[in-house]
Design a protein that fits this description.
Elements (H helix, E strand, L loop, with lengths): L2 E4 L7 H6 L7 H15 L5 E4 L8 H10 L3 E5 L5 H4 L7 E3 L1 E7 L7 E7 L14 E4 L14 E3 L10 E2 H9 L8 H4 L1
Parallel strand pairs: 1-2, 2-3, 3-4, 6-7, 7-8
Antiparallel strand pairs: 1-9, 5-6
Amino acid sequence: MNTWFTADTHFGHKNIIKYTNRPFSTVGEMDEALIANWNARVAPDDDVYHLGDFALNSPGQCRGIIARLNGNIHLIRGNHEEAADACKDLFVWSKNYHELLIDDPDAYQGKQAIMLFHYAMRVWNGSHHGTWSLFGHSHGVLPDDPTMRAIDAGVDVHGLAPISYAEVKAIMARKTWVSPFAEKEK
């Protein structure tokens, strides 16, 4: 079983094609590509953490899309969740934010802490101790800060597909973050 992260799919949202310069002529074409990209990466038993703005369509259309997606989907609510809220029963859970622990032998005490929220933050619980932050909302227009353990997990940044924990870990390893307590800990 793998763990995946994504955000800002905006299923059913015609204007997102124009706003984010997605390479599609129609919303149907976009939805089909997003579903295909998702299912090409995510297996049926995998966990997916969607960091908000799942869909802007009718509850019926949203249910149809969820039924076609692989994985156990956990929803972090974004600012466009009317359709997803009407389909809450199809998600493992729906929350405003979540503090996730991933088993990882390379992490402190074998667990990597990750703060999941729709919006980017400058600090978060545990940020001074190496907790990661994954967010969406900005559709790749927020410049990445190589000194922060935070990344935009949205589809517009990651090839219109979810990214794996291993991919997130590799991105974080390239960052130059140093604990603000490093000198005091010596």
